[in-house]
Amino acid sequence: ISELEFAYKLLELENKYEQFVEEAVHSLYEKLKSGGYITEKIVEETEEILEPMSKLAKSFTIIHVGHAHIDMNWMWGYHETVAATLDTFRTVLDLMEEYPEFTFAQSQASVYKIIEEHDPKMLESIKKRVKEGKWEVTASTWVEADKNMPNTESLVRHILYTKQYLSELFGLDKDDLMIDFEPDTFGHSKFIPTILQAGGVKYYYHCRGYDKEVAYRWCSPSGEILVYREPFWYNGSPTSDMALYAVEFFKNYSSKYALKVYGVGDHGGGPTRRDIEKILRMREYPIYPNVKFGTYREFFKKLEDVKDKLPVVEGELNFIFDGCFTSQSRIKMANRLSEAAAEETEKFLVFSNLWSGYEYPKDKIKEAWINTLFNHFHDIIPGSGVTETREYAMGLFQKTMAILLSQKKNSLCEVALNIDTKNLVENENGKLEISEGAGVAFKSENYKVSQDSRGRGIRRIYHIFNPSLKRRKEIVEIVLWDWEGDLDRLAVKNADGEKVPHQFVEKRLKHYWGHHYIELLIEADVPAFGYSTYMVDEEPCKEPKIEFSKDPRVQKPREYVLENENLRAVFDLSTAKLTSLFDKENKIEYIDSKRGGAHFRLILEDINSRTNEMLAQANAWVVGRYLDIIDIHRNVKIKRGACGELRNSIVFEFKFGKSSKLNVEVLLDKDDKMLKFKSMVDFREFSDLENDITPQLSFYVPLNFECEKYVFDVPMGVIERQGYDIDVPGLSFGCARTPDRTLGIFSKTKYGYRVKNNSISLTLIRASHSPDMYPEIGEHKIEFAILADNKYLNNYSLMELSYNYNHEPTVISNNVHPGKLPPATSFADVKSNSSVISSIKFAENRKNHLIIRLYEIEGKTDEVVIEFKTLKPLNAWFVDLNEDNISNKDTIEIEHNQIRFKMDAYELKTVMIEFSK
Question: Given a cut of 90, is residue 31 above it in pLDDT?
Fold first, then answer.
């Protein structure tokens, strides 16, 4: 029957065979009518009638690729992932012994790492099959990763570490690893083709995020990749109707080679004996395509032959599963903090090595990165796993931050030891004091470098390190331990002895593990990718200050207002909602008070199965219809917080929902255009299955101006989107931007934004219930900010603001000693108009070689100048993402301590720089 169906399908191509098909049908029908069933002899007689069509039939080929989709920790813990991997591969190897032609393909470096660690003997068998060409390694990423939430450098490291590991493990050339196999990934960001192409990846296989073309050329503004979108599914068995599909595929895409992916998957399993026997049986059909065991590479190479005839698809391939931008929010937090810490730590390690000789711990940094990459699996970072999924991810996160924060602290302390401080303090007295060593691990609970004390006496020394490649002048918090001076005479000075404005966070001593401390704000000025030095001292005695009675003389109306040179923020007296955010210079009101102003909301999602079956069974993936939006700004306790020259704040708290509690401090710093929110949520909400409700906490900003399009940062750039009534992803911001103003929400740990009807909202916590019933119970520290600017901020400006918000300066305490480094300096300064630095690190396999990676985000040519303040480059050239040399029409100019080169529009470039030994 399958052959006859195929013969009918072939008539769509060549109808000259119609008489043979009609004769075969008539003959088969008569014999079936008389005999009641079809015998093997009848089949042979029917095939003989159709024999003239055999050549045409065999001009088609169906390539069958065995596959086992192995989810990393989806509905189970890591121990089960290991077991599923070992059991699956054992089955595959057994089948290969019995069926010499059988081929199998497997993605994900992580599964090969599992085999290496847990069954080295099996690994040797796999190596043998890889060498024979029977086992195809289809991994170019550490796991089958999400493509919307990992940042640019994460996506680069997937390629770098995967190709490095697998090429060494199996003796493959890096160019052999040319396929990015992402069958179940939930959407694909706009610039993925550029990143893959720069890493030597040519082919892309996926299922989700796009529903039009099956074979196409996916183009980003500066890259292109050949794509096959699975029209059926990546799990399943070989089926005879693939022959019909082969004809359709040829009609649409001009290739007579069709692909069939088969095998039990998600929990592993792979091809079965029945699958293989069925393929062998179909191979014998005379009026049927050529059926063979093969590889993805074989299929893609055939597809490449008709590449010029394939349609071109541009832009992001989104959206699917909007709940995955918010579910299991702690995993999202872990990813953002890990990525930020990795970027800073590598940068400061380079700094420390080149200036103070601190040894670069390459293996430890790689371990931290690989932990982070593992959590990018498309069911881990999206939050669509179970409790064990989340617990394992958070365990990896703790190990990652232990590595990164300790290495960052070590490297900066090494630099501090080489800073000449002997002239900053005349006599370091206080030998009987207890301040040295005070504050161990202080601030570590916020995943920051600890602010312990290394000084003693009245004059204390602090170094402030700037991770940004641009000079920064901003408010920085330092911690003063066990200081015995007079707080009223406390002064802060820079290395030149000039007084610097300061402000007490609270003018009272606090206690911490046998020590006391006070927190100060100072107005720091720190050079690009460098440091400045500040001293806390006690000024000489002045004339005593005469205090007058503070009895009230006049009563004024109470108000809660935060104001600086740029903005005036007004909060409602009763509810603490932000009812006005006013630009003082241009008289612009940003917030629409008629819609309640900017405020927190408790949203109840409808998860009724009659509305959408998936909402009831797996609502981690999908946000439900907004059933109700509840005003939770009730019975609010509100008070003034910081009050001074550098920072002002208000603090409010209220209860909401079942028994949850929200505590918020809203801060406005001197000269800032960001209104910053620091929130502590004791979240006790969970899905109510009896009433079909899932709760979420969000922050809503109604705009006081018309906005049709919004911009978001995505991997390797910024994207513009129309308003959309589902959650959409942004790495760190979502902004409304018009020719004369910009207003946006910047976040430190969140990804899910909703923009529509001239408003922006940020989803903070979403209590999905399936597959993890209680993913959000407990305390959440959440920081975000509202940016308000009276001009159009381009992509580059937004990215710079986002970087500075997410990468605060780091403070290191020091003592008195000689050194070779000055009190303030810069390691490097970057001049560019539209190119963003993604990474500064040492090369993987070349000593004394520096890697700088950057990408252009405005869509125009940009000249980049990198100046090294004390080092002179010997040579510089372009490499690919794998740090291998490439031919490039552009050159890098070296002049004294500068390198200069050109960036094309939306280009991703990696520069290797050699310094003297």
Answer: no
